[in-house]
Design brief:
Chain lengths: 988, 201
């Protein structure tokens, strides 16, 4: 394990206790110390630079254990008097310093019926919590303020609550849950947000209680099968629990680690009294550690601790009245320790061992924080690093470990930041940025020291020497401030720089440690918007830049990490290039840096590099990776590159369509339009299209959802619009852009020209061209819809500004099958009219589309209503649609009314097999009626009647034909057809 | 360390309004307030005193005398070292109820040997001239009920208050003979019991 000599510990003060402390605990702003045979609690306030006595109060018995809870601001104790252990909670204890020395006592479970007038807010209260078994250990939930009590055969959870009585809130507890346990006698417990850890001398069990009422909580654990109402099973308790107690042998159980469902085999039975479910998470059993000789005290587990880390960015209520916490646990960490080894597990979506801590000497106690693990041995306070923030960030952010973000790995070795000498360390506790440390020198040891170093003066240093003369106590309770994160971070970075030139692993390791330290500080939910936070964020970015620098120089498999770290540093590309170019001592650049540069220039960027930096970039790529140069030059970041200089580098490249296009672009920028033209003419359209496919950025750039055409695209619009449309079609065909992006492109490209039209002609050209390239069905219908709606829109505005389309209706009909042949009857209908806007050809294109096989007429019907029937051209569209919907009779009526000249052409073309009865059942009677009713000008009808009779004579037999003929006609008129019909019969 | 500690729990029982809180206040703070509220539930005060050269913390538990507060006070009888049964000399009913108070105490405190348990009887409010209970009557009751000491007190005038409490302490120490086991609170106990002690170098 690496050992550095950083300074995580800052100033220290002495807690001014009058007597030797027995026990202590701390939280919020206070340190609680018992003394006087354990029957009195002294409270000291700790803040920035002072530690002073706040108040003291007597307990009802000798305190064996105590714990403070910040949420409820209560102190809970296990006390002993007359051999009876009691559990008590001290609330309103801050009033102990007030003038009112009277202390009120009540039983847990407040009785509403008793009017509690006398109990004032300025009076300390003791809540007596009777238990059926003597309490052995206690733990408070830092999140909800609930209390867990461990007894020999049960665990009891008291739920913290507030009762409102006469406008004041009174704190009380509910006995919320009892868990019966077998096979373990808890000596220590930890409790946080439903997670429970219990520990005996050599066993640890971590579980989670889940109320069956809230199903949502259940699902937070992946493995649902592990959730089980745990019943006491006889076959489980085959291990330690059933061994005869009066055995003379020391029987050591096999050490084991069981995760989640496997824990059922551990031999510990847990059964809740109600329908609460218990989900087992972790079980470990150890063999006694006899390295220090056979002392039970030296072989057992200690310092069981559950440490939550919360989801970031979630606000929480600071109002102590609301018992519902809004901090959401992201991941739980569990620490416990054997004398020589510490174990840190993460309990998130999975349960896994994060780190093992090997101590150089026997440990006495340890405290875990999100940033450090502090361990005391007899004479050393050691500060280890932890991987909590690395594990937490991976639980929270799925984008960690991508090209966007990174974080040092959880598996990275932990290290010791500091070993601080203290003599006679006994106990340690932690709150906020303070460590509370109790030292007691052994009486005999003191005696020895008296002889050897009797003249040493007591200094301010932690090493406390007792001189023979003074009667100073041989104990001390210290408040050690931990160094502010940013300060320690800076020290670690400085430290790492000492290794930098040697490129040792120590340097990168410290940089990573410093990064994790800052990350952990930023994940603290209590961190408010303040100067401190601004400093932390700045340190975080700086550390990312340092890490980026480090990885940019590497040529190893981790060199790619330069990219995410540089991104997280929020530095501009120019800044990073200048950093790297500035510090590079050897010719050539690290693989990490090139990887970063390549990626960052490939991704869309807002940043445009200055001319000087752009040239530097080209020089770098020209030197190490020529093949990338064309792509680099296509990056919008290099928009300001000097075209003359770029041309020089381009001349040296293998000629290709892409290189030519870039050259053309540079020439265009230099206003050398001839060169520009020549470069493009060097290559076939197909080659150019391939080049655009390779580098769409020649034509467009993306900015968020916006699509911005390049200057080259504008140039092409004016000079080679066909190529531009073909390029876009190719890009769409190859899924480089979507239909919407193409629309945005053309709209941006043509914005200034087509002010009145919302659809630029070039976009229509694109749609039409895209149809010719046979798009897939979904795209086809989409484009057909867009095109037809555009045609209709134009048709309905006869006075529109005419624009020459790229393709005529004829071109389209020849290029693909979606555009159908226009029927002769339509031609006949419109032939008489002075054609509307032949130039644009929308009528013809629409008629052609409606005549084609791809268009679904039903989808077109909503547009049809918009088209007037005031001209033959527009009427033809209506009739065309009716015909496609097989409404022949309706079409015939309309034609007879408006354009009888076309009726026979229509009938001959449209009335086909299966519907021929229309000739005699519809057309014939209609024609006869119109001839009868019209006095003059009925030549068209008569000629149509003749044609009709001809067809009927062909199709019908004599009898049917006779029957179909009208009764009132002139025989001379009908007879020839009858004769023809008879002749036809005879010939067969 | 001895299982017994220097903390003496002394409980005041008696009818509501006989002056239990006033007696306690007079003894501990040497004040008298005519406007004291009814005690609700249970409260206590600590008083440190030196007995035969030993420092003793006397924890005086004041209880609510009203019947309706019975459930709030009875759980705290357990563990008492001495019980001060109090009545008011101007209220014969409070005197007659002493028997009930004694019974209630013995029942809830779970006293193993009631005959040897130290009770002290206090007749309070002797500053009031209109007496309903005579000294003789009270002394007779004490004699007949375990031969316990009787003190006539006045919290208002501070008559006999300290003497009564000191007698209570003396009774506890005498009966349980625990004075030799007392722990001087000024002495530092270096051998903390729950933590392992390491060998010295």
């Amino acid at each position: 394990m690496r050992l550095y000599n950083c300074h995580p510990f800052g100033s220290q003060r002495i807690v001014p206790t009058m007597q030797a402390p027995d026990l202590f605990c701390c939280g919020r702003d206070s340190v609680f110390v018992t003394s006087a045979g354990g029957c009195k609690v002294e409270v000291f306030t700790v803040c920035q630079d002072l530690c002073q006595r706040l108040c003291s109060f007597s307990t009802l018995g000798k305190v064996l254990h105590m714990a403070y809870n910040d949420v409820g601001d209560y102190l809970v104790t296990i006390e002993e008097k007359n051999n009876i252990s009691s559990l008590r909670a001290y609330v309103n204890w801050r009033c102990a310093s007030n003038e009112n020395p009277r202390v009120s006592v009540r039983m847990v479970g407040f009785k509403m019926k008793s009017p509690h007038i006398g109990s004032s807010k300025d009076q300390m209260e003791i809540i007596e919590m009777p238990l059926s078994e003597p309490p052995l250990c206690i733990a408070c939930c830092p999140l909800q303020g609930d209390l867990l009590v461990g007894c020999k055969s049960k665990l009891i959870i008291f739920h913290l609550k507030y009762i409102s009585i006469q406008d004041s809130l009174i704190l009380d507890f509910d006995c919320a849950l009892i868990l019966h346990i077998t096979g373990i006698c808890p000596v220590q417990a930890s409790f946080c947000a439903g997670y429970i850890g219990i520990m005996s001398d050599l066993e640890v069990l971590v579980m989670k209680v889940v109320s069956t009422l809230s199903e949502t909580q259940l699902t937070t654990h992946q493995d649902m099968s592990e959730v089980e109402a745990f019943q006491e099973k006889d076959n489980l308790s085959t291990s330690a629990s059933q061994l005869p107690e009066s055995c003379d042998f020391v029987i050591c159980q096999r050490p084991m680690e069981l995760i989640s469902e496997e824990c059922k085999m551990c031999g510990i039975g847990v059964s809740p009294e109600d329908c609460t479910q218990v989900c087992h998470l972790l079980y470990r059993r150890f063999a006694p550690d006899f390295t220090e000789g056979i002392h039970v005290e030296n072989t057992r587990l200690h310092s069981l601790q559950l440490l939550p880390m919360y989801k970031t960015g979630i606000s929480f209520a600071t109002d102590p009245k609301s018992a519902t916490p809004q901090k959401e646990v992201l991941v739980m960490f569990c620490f416990f320790s054997m004398p020589h080894t510490g174990f840190l597990y993460s309990i998130g979506s999975t349960v896994k061992l994060l780190s093992l801590y090997q101590y150089p000497e026997t440990s006495q106690q340890a405290v875990l924080t999100p940033q450090f693990l502090h361990v005391i041995t007899r004479n050393n306070l050691q500060c280890f690093t932890v991987r909590c923030s690395a594990a937490a960030v991976r639980e929270e952010d799925p984008y960690i470990d991508t090209t966007m973000k990174s974080c040092p790995p959880v598996s990275m070795d932990v290290c010791t930041l500091r070993m601080q000498l203290f003599i006679g360390l006994k106990a340690i506790a932690h709150f906020k940025n303070y460590l509370i440390i109790l030292t007691k020198t052994n009486m005999e040891a003191t005696e020895e020291r008296r002889v050897s170093t009797s003249q040493r003066q007591r200094s301010k240093k932690p090493v406390k020497n007792k001189t023979a003369q003074d009667a100073e106590p041989n104990w001390n309770l210290y408040v050690v401030s931990t160094t502010p994160t940013v300060q320690l971070y800076k020290e670690m970075v400085e430290y790492s720089k000492r290794y930098e030139t040697a490129k040792t692993q120590g340097s990168i390791h410290l940089l990573n440690e410093a990064h994790l330290l800052v990350r952990a500080a930023l994940m603290d939910p209590n961190l408010e918007e303040s100067l401190a936070k601004t400093e932390l964020v700045a340190a975080f970015k700086e550390s990312c830049a340092h890490l980026g620098d480090w990885f940019s120089r590497l040529g190893t498999k981790h060199s790619h990490l330069a990219l995410p770290y540089y991104k997280m540093s929020c530095l501009s590309i120019s800044d990073i290039i200048n950093r790297v170019v500035g510090m590079e001592m050897l010719p050539g650049y690290g693989r990490g840096f090139l990887f970063y540069l390549k990626h960052v220039l490939f991704e869309e960027q807002d940043e445009q590099l200055s001319e000087a930096v752009a040239v530097k970039v080209i020089e770098i790529f020209n030197a190490v990776d020529k093949a990338q140069l064309p792509h680099v030059l296509c990056s919008p970041c290099l928009a300001h590159v000097c075209p003359t200089k770029a041309m020089v580098y381009l001349q040296n490249l293998q000629p290709s369509a892409l290189v030519s296009l870039i050259k053309a672009n540079m020439a265009r920028r230099m206003n050398d339009l001839d060169t520009c033209k020549n470069e493009i003419q060097h290559h076939s359209e197909m080659m150019l299209l391939c080049a655009f496919m390779d580098e769409p950025r020649l034509l467009m750039n993306h900015k968020g959802k916006e699509v911005i055409p390049t200057a080259l695209a504008f140039y092409f619009k004016d000079t080679v619009p066909g190529l531009l449309v073909a390029s876009l079609v190719a890009l769409h065909e190859n899924n480089k852009i979507s239909l919407t992006e193409a629309e945005l492109f053309f709209q941006a490209l043509c914005e200034k020209m087509d002010d009145e039209d919302n659809v630029p002609q070039m976009l229509v050209d694109f749609w039409e061209a895209r149809l010719s390239a046979y798009p897939p069905e979904s795209v086809l219908q989409d484009i057909l819809f867009k095109l037809t709606s555009y045609y209709v829109w134009r048709i309905c505005r006869p006075h529109h500004l005419c624009v020459k389309p790229l393709r005529s209706p004829e071109d389209l009909r020849n290029s693909c099958s979606h555009f159908g042949l226009i029927s002769p009857w339509i031609s006949k209908m419109v032939s008489k009219e002075s054609a509307l806007c032949n130039h644009c050809g929308e009528f013809l294109k629409l008629q052609s589309l409606l005549s084609g096989p791809s268009m679904d007429v039903k989808l077109f019907l909503p547009f049809l209503k918009l088209i007037p029937e005031d001209s033959n051209s527009s009427l033809s569209i209506h009739i065309l649609c009716a015909t496609r919907l097989m409404q022949y009779e309706k079409s015939i009526d309309k034609l007879l009314d408006c354009c009888p000249e076309a009726i026979i052409a229509y009938a001959k073309h449209e009335v086909k097999e299966g519907s021929q009865t229309i000739w005699w059942n519809k057309l014939l009677p209609e024609l006869c009626n119109r001839i009868r009713s019209s006095q003059s000008n009925n030549e068209v009808f008569i000629s149509s009647l003749k044609d009709t009779l001809e067809i009927m004579a062909m199709e019908l037999d004599t009898k049917d034909f006779l029957n179909a003929l009208p009764d009132d006609g002139t025989a001379a008129f009908f007879l020839p057809y009858l004769l023809n019909q008879s002749k036809k019969k005879l010939t067969f | 360390m001895s299982a017994k500690s220097s903390l003496l729990k002394i409980i005041l029982l008696g009818d509501g309004g006989v002056g239990k809180s006033s007696l306690m206040n007079r003894y501990v703070t040497n004040k008298f307030d005519t406007q004291l509220f009814h005690t609700i539930g249970v409260e206590f005060l600590n008083k440190e005193l030196e007995v035969d050269g030993h420092l003793v913390t006397m924890q005086i538990w004041d209880t609510a005398g009203q019947e309706r507060f019975r459930s709030l006070r009875t759980p705290f009888y357990r563990g008492s070292d001495c019980c001060l049964l109090t009545f008011s000399v101007d209220d014969s009913q409070s005197f007659q109820n002493l028997t009930n108070w004694k019974k209630e105490f013995i029942y809830y405190a779970d006293v193993k040997d009631p005959d040897s348990f130290p009770f002290v009887i206090l007749g309070n409010k002797i500053d009031i001239t209109d007496r309903q209970v005579s000294v003789e009557e009270a002394q007779a009751w004490c004699r007949d009920n375990g031969n316990n000491p009787y003190f006539e007190t006045s919290a208002k005038d501070a008559t006999n208050v300290a003497a009564a409490f000191e007698e209570a302490v003396r009774r506890v120490l005498a009966i349980e003979d625990r004075s030799d086991q007392l722990i001087n609170t000024d002495t530092v106990n270096l051998h903390r019991k729950p933590k392992p002690t390491t060998a010295c170098c």
